[in-house]
Every structure is written in structure tokens, then in C-alpha cells.
């Protein structure tokens, strides 16, 4: 039996169906009660900062002397979550009254009962951990804005940029939704809009790039009254971090997280306990791009050398199976072709 155009298209459609990866439901993607609203507008913030970046590039504005960074002193964070509220407010993400965020530290059950990660409607979250003696420690999470971002090197369409100011920003207009950036990020930060069935995209913290270029500090830093967040030039932030460690023997572990991990990050942390005990991954100093670029080379090689033989091989098997089935039907007198 000859293969006609209709059968070819049917077979190709069947093959495509077998290759589609089922998208997780929102209940699978997020813990109960932590899912973003279907009206989450995270990409408005990402779109805004990208436009500002492009406008500044066209004007050939001089870059800062050096990139900026933020120091998070975990020993000072009180878990008020004002940073979460300010982030949502500035970026026009779904939000609630500030007092509800502040009250959560005393509530039972509480949002702190589970470990959260940033998602499409919330660029930063605060989690609670306990030391061995039961003392609570509060840890803020957001994009680390790596000095050598893995998301940027992994993106096939260059939807990311590392700005001279420090923030890593994202261009939704060219994103194809491949999610390689999610795989490449060692901090599990880029969030996918699983709740959007038509045009899902990535969302992430912008480090308030739009505020930084205007001479302001990020919204979360501005609202922090506990002194847990310090903004400044990266070299100065590292100096401040080590001064606190040296001037307070026994208060901090001798480690500035983010100074050297994966080539360095724009968010740095000091802590009274080892970072592995409060959810931080133990990472090497080698920048992620050195790994991801090798991976992408293999992906490209697979696309050129391996993908098409697999596609047509799979189609051949589908066609062969269909022919066999039709032959059996014909033998039973149920076929539609000539005997």
C-alpha cells in the first residue's frame, strides 16, 4: 500500500502527539494556597524594564563604575515579609494588605509552614528555618542575578541580558518557552506561567532595574526596617559583609554566599549557620555558562544529526503498524481496499 498525503499528515500528527510534554496543572506546579492569581502580571514588570534597557542602550548612556549588589544579613531578618509586599506593589503583581504579610509570622497555621519558591505572581519569598536549638531564621529568596548568568547562556533566543548595573533582565517578546533557563539556573528561580494555557512565559525578579537606573534602591531594600538588606556597589557590599563577619566573632559563619559561587552573584548573604542548613545549594565557583554552553552545543548537534532520523524513524514505525493492522482487517474481510 502506498503512503498518501493524508496518511502522512495523520502519522505526523500522531507522532507530534507522542512528543508533546504534558503541562503540569497549577495544583501540581504550586503548593496549595500559594498559587498565583490567574491575573498575575509579572511580565508587565519584566516588559517594562526591558524597554527601559533598550531605550538606555539607544542613547548610549555610560554604564556605572561597577555593578550593584544587595547584602542579605540573615541574622537581622525578622520575617515581617514587608519585602514581599513592596515587591508585589512596585511590580503590580497580585497583592494583599501589608498587615496580612506582617501578621503571618505569628499565625498558626502560617505561610512559613512550608518552603516556598518565587513564582509567576511573586518575585520574592521569605522562608523560615530553625537552628539546632530551635531559633527561627528567616531567609529571603529571589533571583540571585548572577555575574555570569546560566539563564542567559542557556537561552537559544537571547531573551536574557546581564545589565552593566547588575540585574539580569528578561525579554518576553522573543521567548519561545523552551525553559532551558529553568534547567540552567542553580537556584531554581525562573518561574513558568503554568496557569496560562495560551502564551505561557517566564517571569522573575528584575532587581528593580527601573529603580536602580533612576538612582533608587530596590523596593524590597527600601522598605526593610530591620536592616537586613543593604544596597551598594558590589565590591563595597562584599567589604561590608566581611567586616561584619570579622567584627562579630561567633555570630556568623566565615562565608559570604554569592561572592564566589558559580562565578559570583549580585545578591550576597551572611548567616549565623552553615548555608546548607537553610536551603542554599552547595555550588562550585565555576560559572554555569561553562557547563551550559557545552550542553547547548550538544543540543544543536542533536538537532542537526539526531533529531530528524528519530522523527522519521518513529513515523516509519507508526506507518508500519498501521499497514499491518489494515492487512489483518483485509484478511477478515473488513478492509476497504481491493483484495
TrEMBL record:
Pfam families in the record: Fer4_11 (PF13247)
InterPro entries, A to Z: 4Fe4S_Fe-S-bd (IPR017896), 4Fe4S_Fe_S_CS (IPR017900), FDH_Electron_Transfer_Unit (IPR051555), TAT_signal (IPR006311), TAT_signal_bac_arc (IPR019546)
Keyword Ribonucleoprotein appears in the UniProt entry: no
Gene3D superfamilies: 3.30.70.20
Matches recorded under PROSITE patterns: 4FE4S_FER_1, 4FE4S_FER_2, TAT
Example GO molecular function: 4 iron, 4 sulfur cluster binding
Subcellular location: Cell envelope
Domain of life (superkingdom): Bacteria
GO CC annotation: cell envelope
All copies of domain 4Fe-4S ferredoxin-type, residue ranges: 68-97, 166-195
UniProt entry keywords in alphabetical sequence: 4Fe-4S, Iron, Iron-sulfur, Metal-binding, Repeat
Known partners and oligomeric status: Heterodimer of a large and a small subunit.
Protein name: 4Fe-4S ferredoxin iron-sulfur binding domain-containing protein
Protein source organism: Thermodesulfobacterium geofontis (strain OPF15)
Amino acid at each position: 500500500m502506498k503512503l498518501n498525503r493524508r496518511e502522512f499528515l495523520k502519522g505526523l500528527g500522531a507522532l507530534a502527539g507522542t512528543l508533546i510534554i504534558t503541562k503540569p496543572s497549577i495544583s501540581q506546579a504550586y503548593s496549595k494556597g500559594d498559587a498565583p492569581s490567574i491575573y498575575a502580571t509579572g511580565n508587565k514588570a519584566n516588559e517594562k524594564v526591558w524597554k527601559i534597557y533598550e531605550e538606555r542602550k539607544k542613547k548610549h548612556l555610560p554604564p556605572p563604575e561597577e555593578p550593584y549588589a544587595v547584602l542579605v544579613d540573615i541574622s537581622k531578618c525578622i520575617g515581617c515579609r514587608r519585602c514581599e509586599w513592596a515587591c508585589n506593589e512596585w511590580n503590580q503583581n497580585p497583592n494583599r494588605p501589608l498587615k496580612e504579610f506582617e501578621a503571618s509570622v505569628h499565625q498558626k497555621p502560617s505561610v512559613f509552614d512550608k518552603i516556598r519558591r518565587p513564582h509567576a505572581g511573586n518575585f520574592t519569598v521569605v522562608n523560615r528555618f530553625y537552628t539546632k536549638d530551635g531559633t527561627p531564621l528567616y531567609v529571603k529568596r529571589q533571583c540571585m542575578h548572577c555575574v555570569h548568568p546560566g539563564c542567559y547562556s542557556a537561552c537559544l533566543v537571547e531573551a536574557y541580558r546581564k545589565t552593566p548595573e547588575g540585574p539580569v533582565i528578561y525579554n518576553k517578546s522573543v521567548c519561545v518557552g523552551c525553559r532551558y533557563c529553568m534547567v540552567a539556573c542553580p537556584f531554581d528561580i525562573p518561574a513558568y506561567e503554568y496557569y496560562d494555557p495560551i502564551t505561557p512565559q517566564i517571569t522573575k525578579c528584575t532587581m528593580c532595574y527601573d529603580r536602580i537606573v533612576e538612582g533608587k534602591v530596590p523596593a524590597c531594600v527600601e522598605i526593610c526596617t530591620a536592616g537586613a538588606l543593604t544596597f551598594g556597589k558590589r565590591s563595597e557590599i562584599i567589604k561590608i559583609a566581611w567586616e561584619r563577619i570579622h567584627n562579630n566573632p561567633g555570630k556568623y559563619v566565615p562565608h559570604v554566599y554569592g561572592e564566589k559561587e558559580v562565578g559570583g552573584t549580585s545578591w550576597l548573604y551572611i548567616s549565623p549557620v552553615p548555608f546548607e542548613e537553610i536551603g542554599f545549594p552547595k555550588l562550585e565557583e565555576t560559572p554555569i555558562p561553562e557547563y551550559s554552553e557545552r550542553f547547548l552545543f550538544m543540543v544543536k548537534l542533536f538537532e542537526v544529526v539526531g533529531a530528524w532520523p528519530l522523527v522519521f524513524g518513529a513515523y516509519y514505525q507508526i506507518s508500519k503498524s498501521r499497514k499491518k493492522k489494515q492487512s489483518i482487517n483485509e484478511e477478515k474481510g473488513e478492509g476497504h481496499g481491493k483484495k
